Amino acid sequence: MTSTPNLATHRLLLRGWRESDREPFAQLNADPVVMEHFPATLSRSESDAMVDRIQQKFEAQGFGLWALERCSSREFLGFVGLNRPHFKAHFTPAIEIGWRLAHPFWGQGYACEAAREILRFSFETLALDEVVSFTATCNRRSMALMQRLGMTHDPADDFNHPALTPGHRLERHVLYRLGRAQWMNPGNGRAEQIVGRD
Question: What is the mean pLDDT of the segment spanning 56-62?
Answer without folding.
Answer: 93
